[in-house]
Amino acid sequence: MNNNLSIGNRIAYYRRLNAMTQEELAVRLNISSQAVSKWEQQLSSPDIMLLPVIAEVFDISIDELFGRKINTEPVFSLVDTMPWEDDSKIRFAVFQGKKLFNQSEAVLSDGLNSVNIHFDYGKLYKINGICKLNKE
């Protein structure tokens, strides 16, 4: 994503990436859809107190919302004691799978049916997408 984009353009980008309408985002933020529209048209900006909520809705950091990419090392404490040899690939997959299951459960309990998926394993291996979930 271009770091020169306005906050409104970034909100529009992440909203579309998460397959959300302006109305759906507005409901999640407890604001009017007109407010979201004004942000995206760069006619106004979100209140500073909404920034953490917006970032949480998109499952990104506030830094990412402002176009700053922070390189962080994933925490693998969930799989540190697994009974197989650690080759980092297995650990990464288990960690991300556990994270996806936890996120899926929270999304379904909120009455939604989609979750954003992001796997980043090195420079050449990145997967982004939306996973539609069905509660049985």
3D architecture notes:
- With 136 residues, the chain is mostly helical.
- The protein folds into two domains: 7-65, lambda repressor-like DNA-binding domains (434 Repressor (Amino-terminal Domain)); 77-132, no CATH class.
- The protein has six helices and two strands, in the order ααααααββ.
- A two-stranded antiparallel ribbon has the order 1-2.
- Helix 2 packs across helix 3 (33-40).
- The N and C termini lie far apart (36 Å).
- The mean pLDDT is 75.
Task: Fill in the keyword field for this structure.
globular, 10% strand, mainly alpha, 136 residues, two-stranded antiparallel ribbon, 44% helix, 434 Repressor (Amino-terminal Domain)
**Beta strands, count:** 2
Tally of DSSP helical segments: 6
The Cα radius of gyration reads: 17 Å
Approximate shape: globular
Number of domains: 2
Kindly report how far apart the N and C termini lie: 36 Å
Please give the CATH class of the largest domain.
Mainly Alpha
Instruction: Please summarize the sheet with the most strands.
Output: 2 strands, antiparallel
CATH architecture of the largest domain: Orthogonal Bundle
